[in-house]
Amino acid sequence: MIVPASGAAPARPVLVLAERRGYDGRVCRSTFALLTLARRLGVPAAVLDSVADTASVAELGRFGAGTVYMVTVPGADEFPIATRVETLVALARRDRPIAIMAAVGRVGQEVAARVAVRLGARFFDDVIDIRAAGAGPAVVHSMLAGSPLVESRVVGDIAVCAVRTDAVEPRESPVASTLREAAVPTPDRRRGARLVSRVRAAAAPRPELTAAPVIVAGGRGIGSRRSFELVHQLADALGGVAGGTHTAVELGWCDRDARIDIVGHVVHPQLYIALGVSGSVRHRAAIPDAGTVLAVDNDPAAPIFSIADLAVVGDVHQVVPELLMEIRRRRSTVTPRSATLRRNR
Fold first, then answer.
1. CB 138, CB 37: distance < 8 Å
2. Which pLDDT does position 4 carry in this prediction?
3. Range 253-260, long-range pairs (CB < 8 A, 24+ positions)
4. Residue 162 CB coordination number (10 Å)
5. Which end of the chain, N or C, is surrounded by fewer C-beta atoms within 10 Å?
């Protein structure tokens, strides 16, 4: 928590939209990254979209959220986007925060944009850095798929930011959290999207996509939902995580939460394998800092090859099975004793 110097004005609050994972209800890593950035500007306050549990409050406090707001208004679960918007708008009008922060994603960007419109405030999308700069925050955000980068300074207004948290390392700063109920208007049932059903995602045994060291992504060139299983098989063989392009997601081959592009996730793996991915501008912009890029596609003119370290022009349906066989063969020839000897050399 920021403590003002003697005689200085109290630090202004920073509202952070807290999100939870679909498969276990735990607070997302992106929220911890937002709280880490928020501490640069003022006093972070986390805003949950529903009733807060003890574990969530404790986690948020561990990363500096001195206040945790929960929403208990009727219809909160039925109108999740509208509820978040109403909550942030009500808190902003009451507390005049220096900034409102949400993570880039399907929920965060929509909520942040709508909040900015309601408040008549400045909205910054694709924010990659934010820091205190005198009377207001300095916001670095990308334009045109990452080029160029623009630094803007906000004075005398609320900065509403959709932040890319993929490259932000969450850092703990434990404080005692106070749980408060946010009194907000009931969402207008005549407007906005209405949630009619909820399906809990399967548990994720691997790292989150944005933190995975190995990612295998599939695109239109995979050909079908059934063939997309090759992506998962290779990811499993390498201990990585499977992802997909915008097209793969829209065709129903890949979960929306695994979408890799500037609208989905920006990732920074040590190894990125693109299978049947042509490589649109928005997809290439989402892997700017990948360590090694291996691309497999049957089109020698595919744009993905322009950024690939290793390129294979061929049919993924032939290349991937052979690659899987080679991985299994090499693993079967490494005995426990030989592995020990190699580690000791």
1. no
2. 37
3. 253/218, 253/222, 253/224, 253/225, 253/228, 254/218, 254/228, 255/201, 256/106, 257/22, 257/201, 257/209, 258/209, 260/209, 260/215, 260/217, 260/286, 260/287
4. 24
5. C
* 204 close to 66: Cβ distance less than 8 angstroms: no
Say if residue 276 carries a ligand binding annotation.
Answer: yes
Residues in CB range of 232: below 8 A, 6 or more apart:
216, 242
Tokens standing for residue 128: 């990659």
Q: Looking at the structure, tell me whether residues 28 and 176 fall in a common domain.
A: yes
* Percent of the chain clearing pLDDT 90 (strictly above): 61
Range of the domain at 167: 13-181
pLDDT in tens, 274-331: 999 999 998 998 998 899 999 999 999 999 999 999 999 999 999 999 999 999 999 8
147 in a labelled binding site: no
208-253 pLDDT tens trace: 788 899 999 999 999 999 999 999 999 999 999 999 999 999 999 9
Q: How far apart are the first and last CA of the chain?
A: 48
Position 15, amino acid: L
Is 283 marked as a binding-site residue? yes
The answer to the question of whether 279 is labelled as a binding residue is: yes
Q: Does 325 fall in a domain?
A: yes
Q: How far apart are CA 221 and CA 297, in angstroms?
A: 7
Amino acid identity of 306? S
Look at residue 7 and tell me if it is in a domain. Answer: no
pLDDT higher at 224 or 9? 224
Residues 127, 63 share a domain? yes
To the question of whether residue 280 is assigned a binding role by annotation, the answer is yes
Q: Does residue 197 have a known ligand-binding role?
A: no
Q: How far apart are CA 304 and CA 274, in angstroms?
A: 8
**Is 278 within any annotated ligand binding site?**
yes
* Full DSSP string of 99-134: EEEEESSHHHHHHHHHHHHHHT-EEEEEEEEEEEET
* Total tally of structural domains belonging to the chain: 2
For residue 220, say whether it is annotated as part of any ligand binding site: yes
